[in-house]
Amino acid sequence: MRTALVLGTGLIGTSAALALVQRGVTVHLADHDPEQARTAAALGAGTDTAPDGPVDLAVVAVPPAHVPAVLADAMRRETARGYIDVASVKGGPRRDLEALGLDLTRYLGTHPMSGREKSGPLAASADLFEGRPWVLTPTRDTDTEVLNLALELVSFCRAVPVVMDADAHDRAVALVSHMPQLVSSMVAARLEHAEEAAVRLCGQGIRDVTRIAASDPRMWIDILSANPGPVADLLSDVAADLDEAVRALRALQSSDEAKRREGSSTVESLLRRGNAGRVRVPGKHGSAPRSYEVVAVLIDDQPGQLARIFADAGAAGINIEDVRIEHATGQQAGLVQLMVEPQAVPVLSAALRDRGWALRQ
Questions:
Q1: What is the tens place of the pLDDT at every residue in 236-274?
Q2: Predicted model pTM
Q3: Which of these, 34, 59, 254, 295, could form a disulfide with 259 (CB 3.0-4.6 Å)?
Q4: Where does the signal sequence lie (predicted)?
């Protein structure tokens, strides 16, 4: 791949363009908002001038509802040898393109499973896709050259290619992305008019659950409008679980001992089902999840604190598998939770104490 055209210079399009530029590809940028394309160009993602002729690959990075129209226009103008889109829904756009009577041998639907709560070119990064799955949905009609160009793009972005059927992909992202977005937003919505005294008690748990609720609503309306059926089916199942949980919790208020036992059993079953589902979430580097122990360290909110902790852990020969920070409400301090292999806990704890760190249980 020597040349590419990125149509849509938001977070995903600009990030892909930055990665391609780093690999020496000449990238042309276009957007319905010329100012956004100029911003992406100023960030080093390519040029906002039109190519002189057909490029090797056109990357359509617009919301799902606009993919068919943008792709159809690009293909009719023969802007590239191959065409892909990076929208988060795959089945619907392909059927819309088929209805337009286009030659789809040169088209491949793809979806990089990466993103951020922020959108737009200023949020873009060349390493956004590194180590992340990038779904490819070829059919028997997909031209081999187009598939190779898509694989080259995935390689340049240092992502991991995953081949799936388009409709299977849509059901999968409904489960792992679209439905969780709505549930997170619903939980966060409970905080909007909550008493200030209650909100001040927010800890890491509520921060984790509501993190993605900060996402752009306009972007999510586009996504959910393109995949409503699978998401509605999943929410219906969640609603059934919620109804069961409500009945069980009401039973726990009963004066009838048998009802309380039944309610407790139902709640426990729900929590254990959650345990079983959580275990299936891939762990570090996509491997099977592993059980780590936590070493919690109290730190001041000052420059260099994290660097010192990591350096001291490294000096003790301990690999930090993961890290989380829980901030203390209203204080310039917090807890750094270092996730390590169970056998590393005593060694790391002793080393950190020797270096003056205050550990917490």
A1: 999 999 999 999 999 999 999 999 999 999 999 999 999
A2: 0.75
A3: 254
A4: 1-19
